[in-house]
Amino acid sequence: MASSGPQPVTLHFQDLVRVAGETIAGSVDLHVALAQENRIEHLRIKFRGSISTRITTQNGQTRITHRQTVPLIHANKSLWTQGTVFPEAGSHVLSFPFQFQLPTTLPPSYHCDGHSRGGAISYSLEVVGDRPGIFRTNTRIRRVFSVVPAASDSQLLTKESLRQGWDGSWKDTMREDKIRQGLWGDYSRVSASLLLPDLRSFPIATPIPYSFHITTETKILDRSDRPEDKHAKPLFPAPPTQSSKFTQTLRRHTEVRVHGRLRHLEDAFDLQGIRNIDTASARAVQAVIDEPEWVPRDDSKGRGFWRRTVHFNSTLAFPFAPTFRTETLDWMYVLQFVVPFPGLGNDLKIQLPIHFGPGSACPPPPIGAPGSSSLTYADVLPAGPPPMIDLPPSYWAGEDHDWTDEKS
């Protein structure tokens, strides 16, 4: 509970994304006088991580929610007991440092929620001030944090190559279709091509360059029908000239399992608003509009079609949990571009599976910890802590965390 005055217990823990394998550290302050006033007799800290899944079934009017929890971390550390003498016992505030080692195999933090199904992979620290007595509740400070897997050397090199400007090969995904404005009439043609770096996996939260080319061809018409004629009805189909006119969506498919039961869940994320996650290397969308090209079909009658092409170049960043499989939760992603054209069923859609991997190195242990050195976070490539990943408020509220030992 927030309060402007001093608290008997305070947790100091930096709000950063953590990398599997690293040593996390912090401290807990105990205000001696307030602890005595609040009858706190023992101070401890708990470190928890788990995969929690739920599936709700219905049989007639009966609804049953089935749950399964897979523990990942379960560690406890005693910090202080009333009557224990410390060197700074005369101080008004006692400070107790703590450290925990994250296993190298931890899955990334994750959260999904849908009708009658959902799951979370969550991590937390909790400081407990024990207040023995029938009508007393323990003092608790709970801090939920996020974890990502550590990137390998090759993954870090891939990330750096992307940040410095991709000069490798590209993979082209194409789609074309025939469309028409109404139920009758001749068909026009539309096509699109999406180029991404030819990689098996893309590092999360890293600007990925892309090129998106859209080409339209009108139905057969007279050459006198020109696309630049502002007084005539626009020639169908006209390619979009702004990136806001087509959608860029990341679709996430999740499998949720609870004791043999299986459910599927799908989420969609609009990528327009997160393109510039890394302002240092991101770029605005560049649109290049080619001059309309007349393609003759019957020179004697002056008939043919107009071909128009627009090229879009920019970057996309994906601040989401890396693709992962666990015992009860696994997920995959599909990238989808949709170009809308007037008329029923005329939208042109390109979609392709996309795999995400980690993009952050495991930092060295804090100075003074076993195996530590004089290195700091800034000495690890890439510099600085990992960027935040996209997790909903319910993850940070711990709503799906398994607090099975709430009374302990």
From TrEMBL:
GO cellular component: cytoplasm
GO biological process, one term: protein transport
Residue intervals of the Arrestin-like N-terminal domain: 17-150
SUPFAM superfamilies reported in the protein's UniProt record: E set domains
UniProt biased composition (Basic and acidic residues): 222-232
Stretches for region Disordered: 222-249
Classification via Pfam families: Arrestin_N
Transmembrane segments: none
InterPro entries to which the protein is assigned, alphabetical: Arrestin-like_C, Arrestin-like_N, Arrestin_domain-protein, Ig_E-set
Protein name: Arrestin-like N-terminal domain-containing protein
